[in-house]
Amino acid sequence: MTSDTDKNIIDELYGVILGRKTSPVDGSYTNYLFDKGMNKIGKKVGEEAFEVVIAACGDNRQDIIYELADLQYHLLVLMAEKGITPEDVYAELRTRR
Q1: Whether 79 contacts 89, CB under 8 Å
Q2: Which one of 26, 48, 57, 92 has the fewest beta carbons within 10 angstroms of its own beta carbon?
Q3: Domain 4-95 coded CATH 3.40.50.720
Q4: pLDDT tens, 34-84?
Q5: Under 8 Å CB-to-CB from 59, ≥6 apart: which residues?
Q6: What totals of helices (H) and strands (E) does the chain contain, helices first?
Q7: What does the alpha-carbon distance between residue 96 and residue 33 come to, in Å, rounded to a whole number?
Q8: Domain extents for the chain?
Q9: Helix (H) / strand (E) containing 13
Q10: pLDDT for 18-47, tens place per residue?
């Protein structure tokens, strides 16, 4: 069962990522990605998507969840880099219902 806090974690994480973009933190992996640019961010999204597929072909549910979380994080970094908000994606999903 999820709580209201759990439902807001995407927006919260996106806020942290935006914070790193505007106020870099030494040693931050998020800042490393921003510093390397869209080519690196895109490559990581592709790698993580592939890892989700590999995990999904197995039987370990926790591995799938772990890889989905990695993919979601990297997607949020990509969104922040491109100025796309979670609300933009939510709005698009609403149009598809």
Answers
A1: yes
A2: 26
A3: no
A4: 999 999 999 999 999 999 999 999 999 999 999 999 999 999 999 999 999
A5: none
A6: 6, 0
A7: 31
A8: 4-95
A9: helix 9-22
A10: 999 999 999 999 999 999 999 999 999 999
